Amino acid sequence: MKPRLAIVAAVGSLALATAPQALADPIPVAPVDGASLFTARVDQITFQASTNAIPQPSRMDFYVSKDNQVDTDGVLLNPIDTFHAGPVLGPPLVYEASRGSDANWPNKPGTYYWQAVYHDCSQADPKCFSPVQSLTLNPLPPPTQISPADGATIPYGGQMTFSIQDASSYTQDGTRIYIELAKSTALAPDGTFADRYLLARPASTGGDAYEYQFTQPLSQAPGTYYWIVERFDCAAEADCFVTNDEIRSFKVAPPVVGSPPNTRLTRHPGHRTDRRRVTFRFASSVHGASFQCFYTGGWTHCRSPQTFRHLKPGRYRFKARALVNGMKDPTPAKWLFKVVRRH
User: Fold this and answer.
1) Rounded to an integer, what distance in angstroms lies between the CA atom of residue 224 and that of residue 4?
2) Span 45-84, pLDDT tens digits
């Protein structure tokens, strides 16, 4: 009986040595399941898997998917990217690969699923694939406002630099930075202003910083304005605009006027003319002034130039005056002229 027992024990040991089923499957190494330290457009993700299979496979395939659905064989059903690698380290052998060069998914925040699969499944015992693993790509932080501070004032006709700091060191293909201005804080569903006054593209100054010069003629329109910054990135947002929640305001001050404005004519006909069509141009000593012209019905708001057509022979008088902050030019610009008959 003892020799028979020894034979049975030896057979059992042989079975265990020739069928290490759990050790023959691909083993996911990195990223670890549930990894969430990655940022879209920033991190280059490297995938690793190992194996204890004998003979050692010469190639390992990697699948990436937006969902964790698998087919009847247990392999990811809807891969959005596939790539492969040979062994780079060992023992045990480690296979290391990065996403496909034309794959865009690392630019899109969200949760992804990945799996390592033997390229030659005839070497698998009993399975051809590793367990499905997940990873999360966090959104790239939005650009931020640096200056001017909230509530800043720009002198009438002056200039101010708007500074923006974007996220650092990311893949910028297809992205753009904008500054947006409005006269109210109402927002559209995509986080941009509902009633945009101006959309401008600031200039890069290096180091992921941008600047925009707010100057004339914009600074000649007194009032309160609001501004936000945004990144145009259709990979990150379905509506393409990445914004934060900060809205800053600034004011363009009215012109400083210590005395009433002065009005001057910059174009007029001769005192005596046979032309039936004449034009007057006028300006003010204060930028941004409005004007009134004197017609048969009295003073009426007007703009330069003013053109009169089909004039009949006779004497005429033209008058214009500037207005600033409710103050009128007490000495309007005026011109007397006579239209004579043509010979």
Assistant:
1) 99
2) 999 999 887 777 888 999 999 999 999 888 999 999 999 9
DSSP 76: B
Give the burial string for 56-84 (b: 16+ CB within 10 Å, else e): ebeebbbbbbeebebeeeebbeebbbbbe
Contact 240, 309 (CB under 8 A): no
Single out the residue in 117, 138, 159 at which a domain terminates: 138
Q: Cβ neighbours of residue 1 under 8 Å, at least 6 residues apart?
A: none
Q: What does residue 219 show for φ and ψ, rounded to 5 degrees? A: -80, 10
The amino acid at residue 74 is G
Tokens describing residue 306: 């003013």
Q: Is the pLDDT of residue 301 over 60?
A: yes
Number of domains forming the structure of the chain: 3
For 124, counting Cβ atoms within 10 Å of its Cβ (0-12 exposed, 13-18 middle, 19+ buried), the class is middle
pLDDT for residue 6 is more than 90: no
- Quick check: pTM over 0.90? no
- Whether 271 and 337 have beta carbons less than 8 Å apart is answered as yes
283-309: string of b/e by CB count within 10 Å (b at 16+)? Answer: bbebebbebbbbeeeebeebebebeee
Average pLDDT over residues 320-329: 89
Domain boundary (231, 252, 273) is at 252
In this structure, are 53 and 133 located in the same domain? yes
Same domain, 269 and 244: no
Residues 46 and 129 in one domain: yes
CATH number, domain of 182, equals 2.60.40.10
Give the dihedral sign, CA 85/88/93/97: negative
In this structure, the number of other CB atoms found within 10 A of the CB of residue 151 comes to 10
Q: Side by side, which strands form the sheet with 60-65? A: 35-39, 133-138, 110-118, 60-65, 79-85
59 three-state secondary structure = coil
Q: Which candidate, 170, 166, 174, 208, places its Cα nearest to that of 43?
A: 170
- DSSP state for residue 255 in the 8-state scheme: P
Distance between CA 264 and CA 267 in Å, rounded? 9
